[in-house]
Amino acid sequence: MTAAPDRVARIGVVTFPGTLDDGDARRAVRFAGADPVALWHADPDLHDVDAIVLPGGFSYGDYLRAGALATQSPIMRSIIAAAEDGLPVLGICNGFQVLTESHLLPGALVRNEGMRFIRRDQPLRIEATETAWTGGYRPGQEIVIPIKNAEGRYIADEATLDELEGSGRVVARYLGNPNGSLHDIAGIANAAGNVVGLMPHPEHAIVPGFGPDIPERMRSGSDGLTFFTSVLARLGIAPAADRVPVEHAPDHHTADSGIRE
Ligand SMILES: NC(=O)CC[C@H](N)C(=O)O
C-alpha cells in the first residue's frame, strides 16, 4: 500500500466556444490521478489550479485564424500571466494554436501541406524530457498518438528554429512528416519548459486497447497518458490511485470502453 497523497492535484481544462476535446482532456487528467477542473473562457478566475490544459477543437470557429480569437478571451489574459510566472500549460492542437497566437510559444501553425484535413495515427519521437509535461518519457522514446487537424504545419523563421533546436526546445518530432512542418516539429516548449504545445492528441490515447495500436508492441493505445502523469511528478503531487476507474486498471481490456463522463 502506498500512502495517500496529501492532496490531489487540480488541473484546469479550458472550454472555449467551439472546443471539442475538453471531455477527453478531463478524462486524461483523471486517469493520471488528478482532479480535472472545468474552466470557462469567459471567467478569468483560474480557481487555484496547479496546471492547465488548452484542449483541441475549433475555438471561436477558427474565425480570423485558428486560435486567434481565443487569445482575447478573459481566461487567456489570466493564463498568459500565470504561464509567465511558471504555471505548467499544455496546449494540444487548437490549444497549441492558441499558445502561438498568444506568443507564449514562438512560430505559427498554418495550413497543412496539401491543404487537407489530416487524421491518422501518428508516430512521434519525444526529443525533450526536461519539460513539465514530458519528464516521464525516455529521451528518444517513440510513441503513437492520433493527429487530426487542417492547420498543423509548424513554421518559424530560421533564427527561431535555430534557437529551438539549440536550446532543446523541440519537444516532439514527427516520424513521417504528415503536414510539411519545418524540422518535422510536432511540439515545442518555452524557454522555461513549463509551456508545451503539441499538435497530435495525447488525450485520445490514454486507455490500453483504445488508442492507436503499435504492431511491434502488440497492443498499446495509452502512449499519451505520460504527458498527464509527467506534470504531477513535476508538481511533486502524487497521483491519486482512486481517480482511475477500476474497470480501466492497466491491462484490463473490455469490449465496452465503459468510459463515462
Ligand atoms: N483537432 C483540432 O484541435 C483542430 C485544430 C484546428 N482547428 C485545425 O483544424 O487545424
UniProtKB/TrEMBL annotation:
Pathway: Purine metabolism; IMP biosynthesis via de novo pathway; 5-amino-1-(5-phospho-D-ribosyl)imidazole from N(2)-formyl-N(1)-(5-phospho-D-ribosyl)glycinamide: step 1/2
Source organism, top-level taxon: Bacteria
Record InterPro entries: Class_I_gatase-like, PRibForGlyAmidine_synth_PurQ
Protein name: Phosphoribosylformylglycinamidine synthase subunit PurQ
Quaternary organization: Part of the FGAM synthase complex composed of 1 PurL, 1 PurQ and 2 PurS subunits.
Biological role stated in the UniProt entry: Part of the phosphoribosylformylglycinamidine synthase complex involved in the purines biosynthetic pathway. Catalyzes the ATP-dependent conversion of formylglycinamide ribonucleotide (FGAR) and glutamine to yield formylglycinamidine ribonucleotide (FGAM) and glutamate. The FGAM synthase complex is composed of three subunits. PurQ produces an ammonia molecule by converting glutamine to glutamate. PurL transfers the ammonia molecule to FGAR to form FGAM in an ATP-dependent manner.
Keywords: ATP-binding, Cytoplasm, Glutamine amidotransferase, Hydrolase, Ligase, Nucleotide-binding, Purine biosynthesis
Catalytic reaction equation(s): N(2)-formyl-N(1)-(5-phospho-beta-D-ribosyl)glycinamide + L-glutamine + ATP + H2O = 2-formamido-N(1)-(5-O-phospho-beta-D-ribosyl)acetamidine + L-glutamate + ADP + phosphate + H(+); L-glutamine + H2O = L-glutamate + NH4(+)
Presence of the UniProt keyword Endoplasmic reticulum in the record: no
One Pfam match: GATase_5
Active site: 93, 201, 203
GO CC annotation terms, alphabetical: cytoplasm
Locations listed in the record: Cytoplasm
GO biological process, one term: 'de novo' IMP biosynthetic process
NCBIfam families xrefs: FGAM_synth_I, PRK03619.1
Enzyme Commission code(s) on record: 6.3.5.3, 3.5.1.2
Chief location: cytoplasm
GO MF term set: ATP binding; glutaminase activity; phosphoribosylformylglycinamidine synthase activity
Membrane-crossing segments per the record: none
Higher taxonomy: Bacteria, Bacillati, Actinomycetota, Actinomycetes, Micrococcales
